[in-house]
Amino acid sequence: MSAQLLSLPPAFQVSQSSLQDYAICARRFQLRYLMEQEWPTPAAEPLGDAEQADMLGKRFHRLVERYWLDLPIERDKIDATLRPWWDAFLQHPIPDLPAGIRRAEVRTSAVVHGQRMVATFDLLAYNATGDVMIVDWKTTKRRSSRAWLDRRLQTVIYPLLLIESAPRLIGRVLKPEQVRLVYWFANAPTEIEVFQYSTMRYEQDQQTLAYLIDQLLSTQAAVWPLTNDVKQCRLCQYRSLCNRGSEAGSYDDIDTIDELGDIEDMSNGTGSFLEQPDDFVL
Length: 282
Known about the structure:
33% of the residues lie in helices and 19% in strands. The protein starts with 15 loop residues before the first helix and ends with a strand. The protein has a 6-stranded mixed sheet. By secondary structure, the chain is α/β, with parallel strands linked by helices.
């Protein structure tokens, strides 16, 4: 492996998933995003279960995007494994969804602490004057806890990027108190999790991201530091390169599909599964 010092390229755009990787393990970030290392080991066994979960998650997101783009969907043509999720989506809509505009797979970006950051919202709902809601569909095997979600950088980055990009994204300035982030779980559709944003949280999130960005930009080494939390390695596909095991972890240990990859990173960097993303549905 090259001994060359590796640092963040000037044009690199940080996403919640890449920064989450860095927060978990700098070495994982280096291998995945700077060295573009092929994955030498599977994330979990049985491999078929992990691949099936990945595929179903992507297909569900595609299906829901078609719904918000007002494209035709015939239930009897939906794969039988997806129908329970689809039925749950129709039978348990998001409560208090702002009336007006719905935009699916909305990609946005903003400069935060001198670093370009990007995000893709599964759904953005708003009107001309009121609150704005970000909705994220979760197809995890088990419902994530509120405490776990609150610690994830997705919950930090999404509302903050919406605030920063709102003037050009929706045409007006937003106050933090006008923003809500909602997680909807396909396997627990009545147990949504709502994070009401606030000015205090916005200021805290700015500090959190500034700290992480400073750490990321200052990391320069041939081999970036490995996590001290070795349990994080059990589902990492680079663990064999770090001498932390070559056997795949158990699929039963996977609490969230985030550990296999984020949906926005599975769509070839476009932020959408369709050819014309971010159409307006009125």
